[in-house]
Structures are given as C-alpha cells and as structure tokens.
C-alpha cells in the first residue's frame, strides 16, 4: 500500500502543478453545463407560416386566428395565390404553407367536410415534422369546435369523450429536466475519457515510463495509481455539476444520492479503464487524443441523449448497449427524475461492473505486454 500511496502522491502533484490542466478539468465542464442546456432546446415554438386563402370566409378567418393565437406559429404572409407563398419558403422566410381552397366554408357547411393543404420545408426535418403535427392538432381542435356548435342542431343528445391526461415524472414537459442529467454524464465522460487516455502516453513522451518499468512497482499498482486520481476528479466534477443543476436549473434528484454515486463510482472505473486502455496502445498524445475523440463521439451520438435508442435500427441498438455511457444516462434520468431504486437499475449496474472488469483487465494486460 505504501507503493500505491507514493504513486498517488506523484500523480496528484503532477495534476496540480499543471496550471493549464485545472481549468480544463473543473471550469470548462461547468461552463458547458451552463450553456448547453440553454442551447440544446428541442422545443419548436417559432414556426413561420404562410397562408394562402382562396376562400376569404368567416371560418377561414377564425381558423387562421386560432393558429396565430397558439403561440407556436407566426403568420409571415397572407396571400391569395400559391406562388408568392412558395417564394417565401424558398427564401427561408416561411417554414410551412397552409393553403385554404376556394369554397372551403361552403363545402364544410353543405357537405360536412373540407380539405386544406399543408406544404412544409423539410430541410429541417424536426421543425417540419413537429410544425406539421402542431398545425394538424390545431386544425383538429378547430374542427371539433365547429362540430360541437352543430351537434345540438344536427345530432341532439350526442355524447362527447373528454380525455384527461397527465405527464409523469416531468409534468410540465420541461426539456431541461431531460437534457441536463444526460449532458452532465457526457461532460464527466469527456473529461475522464480524454485525460485518462493521455495519461500513460505522457509518461512515454517524457521518458519516465522506462524508469517506472525498471522499478519493483507492480502493473496493477501502476494502473491504479493512474486511475484513482482521475476517479476522484470525476467525482468532484459530478458533484459540482449536481450543485449547478440544483441552483441554476432547480433539478433535485428524487432518488437516493448514495445509489447515484455508487453507480457513478463503478462507471468512472469503467470509463477510466477505457481511457487507460487507449493510452497503452498509443505512441503519442496526439494519437491518443484522436482515438479517444473517435470513440467518445460514438458514445455521445449513440448514448440516447439526442436520439432515443428505441428508435435506432437493430445493429445500432447493439452498439448503444455495448457502451457504458448509454446505461449511465438511463440510470441518471431514472434516479434523478423517477426516483428509481436499486431493483430498477440492477441490470445496468451489472453491465457497468462488467465494463469495468473487462476494460481495466485489458489495460493491465496490455501494459504488461508492452512494458
């Protein structure tokens, strides 16, 4: 244990002597946690709508007024012909065109049905899809309002269905409650993964690795000496992130903090083992940085933070399940938002333990092989 203690003293001294490294470890993740949830807004609220009204009736005016009052749509033009509305879309001044045909009100009154036409600029697929869905919902509500006015006359005594719903765990559908826990996981991953990947390579470039290899230090002691300091730093970064989430975004974990930190402890062992594994294979820091960037980008994009894993194709789901980040993001949201207990996350816990054993065992074996 004395050997391990001396190694840890050496590592901590090296870390705190590097004045340029400390802001990267502690300051940059907190700034990113402040900025990213504000920028990564998946709510689509500013949709520019061009209206082509060929009917100019009372119903069309009421329908357009209902759309404009929804708070999601801004009427950017009111036309009688389709061509100028299309020019608005081509010039990126409008996102969706709503075309109301002639005789809209007459068909609706006499034939009990009328059609409208929607054309969406699908360059931004998310905005087009959500905007069209919002507009369909508003038009559906307007249609129901008209039917309710007619029902006492045409269908006396007809019943209606009143649907009551509630959103569990995130009642106000606040995207920050969903994004902040996942972003915190990614920031801890980036800090831990990159720095651990550069650790052993730095010893190689400085020439001190040969001196360490001729000492009686065991391989597992060397790996632990490299792993534990950044494990502690990861814990500190995560704690600062939780405090920031609480006082800036008002996010308070509903579940057990002990359970959350227990999972984090195992996750950091797996993550740092992965970084050290990259370090044992790399010849210099530049190579280690690019290899770590390659894998961490895959972890980020397939973690389920931006795109649900359930919506991925089968082969992508397999890759997502083979990354420790995916499981930690799931657990983070479950504990923070749902208050999940150990029984709910035990499978993810076992996955992380397996990742930790395999990655660190591989790092120790490969370092011994190349020493």
UniProtKB/TrEMBL annotation:
<dbReference type="GO" id="GO:0140359">
    <property type="term" value="F:ABC-type transporter activity"/>
</dbReference>
<keyword id="KW-1133">Transmembrane helix</keyword>
<feature type="domain" description="ABC transmembrane type-2">
    <location>
        <begin position="132"/>
        <end position="370"/>
    </location>
</feature>
<comment type="similarity">
    <text>Belongs to the ABC-2 integral membrane protein family.</text>
</comment>
<keyword id="KW-0812">Transmembrane</keyword>
<dbReference type="InterPro" id="IPR047817">
    <property type="entry name" value="ABC2_TM_bact-type"/>
</dbReference>
<dbReference type="InterPro" id="IPR013525">
    <property type="entry name" value="ABC2_TM"/>
</dbReference>
<dbReference type="GO" id="GO:0005886">
    <property type="term" value="C:plasma membrane"/>
</dbReference>
<dbReference type="InterPro" id="IPR051449">
    <property type="entry name" value="ABC-2_transporter_component"/>
</dbReference>
<feature type="transmembrane region" description="Helical">
    <location>
        <begin position="21"/>
        <end position="40"/>
    </location>
</feature>
<keyword id="KW-1003">Cell membrane</keyword>
<feature type="transmembrane region" description="Helical">
    <location>
        <begin position="290"/>
        <end position="309"/>
    </location>
</feature>
<feature type="transmembrane region" description="Helical">
    <location>
        <begin position="258"/>
        <end position="278"/>
    </location>
</feature>
<feature type="transmembrane region" description="Helical">
    <location>
        <begin position="349"/>
        <end position="367"/>
    </location>
</feature>
<dbReference type="Pfam" id="PF12698">
    <property type="entry name" value="ABC2_membrane_3"/>
</dbReference>
<keyword id="KW-0813">Transport</keyword>
<keyword id="KW-0472">Membrane</keyword>
<feature type="transmembrane region" description="Helical">
    <location>
        <begin position="178"/>
        <end position="201"/>
    </location>
</feature>
<protein>
    <submittedName>
        <fullName>ABC transporter permease</fullName>
    </submittedName>
</protein>
<feature type="transmembrane region" description="Helical">
    <location>
        <begin position="228"/>
        <end position="252"/>
    </location>
</feature>
């Amino acid at each position: 244990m004395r050997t391990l203690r001396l190694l840890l003293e050496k590592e901590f001294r090296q870390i705190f002597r590097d004045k340029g490294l400390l802001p990267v470890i502690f300051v940059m993740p907190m700034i990113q946690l402040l900025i990213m949830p504000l920028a990564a807004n998946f709510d689509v609220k500013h949709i520019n709508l061009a209206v082509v009204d060929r009917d100019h009736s009372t119903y069309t005016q009421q329908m357009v007024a209902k759309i404009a009052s929804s708070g999601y749509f801004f009427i950017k033009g009111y036309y009688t012909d389709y061509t100028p509305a299309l020019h608005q879309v081509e010039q990126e001044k409008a996102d969706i065109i709503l075309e109301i045909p002639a005789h809209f009100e007459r068909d609706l009154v006499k034939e009990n049905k009328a059609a409208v036409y929607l054309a969406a600029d699908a360059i931004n697929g998310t905005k087009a899809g959500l905007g069209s869905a919002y507009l369909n919902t508003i038009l559906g509500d307007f249609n129901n309002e008209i039917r309710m006015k007619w029902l006492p006359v045409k269908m006396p005594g007809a019943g209606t269905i009143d649907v009551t719903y509630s959103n569990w765990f995130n009642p106000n559908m606040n995207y920050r409650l969903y994004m902040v826990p996942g972003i915190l996981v990614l920031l801890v991953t980036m800090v831990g993964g990159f720095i651990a990947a550069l650790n052993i390579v730095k010893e190689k470039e400085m020439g001190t690795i040969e001196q360490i290899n001729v000492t009686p230090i065991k391989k597992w002691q060397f790996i632990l000496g490299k792993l534990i300091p950044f494990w502690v730093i990861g814990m500190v970064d995560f704690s600062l992130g939780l405090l920031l989430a609480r006082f800036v975004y008002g996010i308070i974990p509903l579940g057990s903090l002990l359970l959350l930190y227990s999972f984090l402890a195992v996750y950091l062992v797996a993550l740092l083992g992965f970084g050290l594994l990259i370090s044992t294979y790399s010849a210099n820091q530049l190579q280690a940085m690019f290899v770590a960037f390659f894998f961490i980008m895959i972890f980020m994009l397939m973690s389920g933070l931006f795109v649900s894993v359930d919506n991925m194709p089968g082969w992508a789901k397999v890759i997502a399940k083979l990354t420790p980040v995916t499981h930690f993001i799931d657990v983070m949201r479950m504990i923070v938002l749902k208050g999940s207990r150990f029984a709910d996350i035990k499978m993810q816990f076992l996955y992380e333990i397996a990742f930790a054993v395999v990655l660190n065992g591989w790092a120790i074996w490969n370092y011994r092989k190349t020493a």
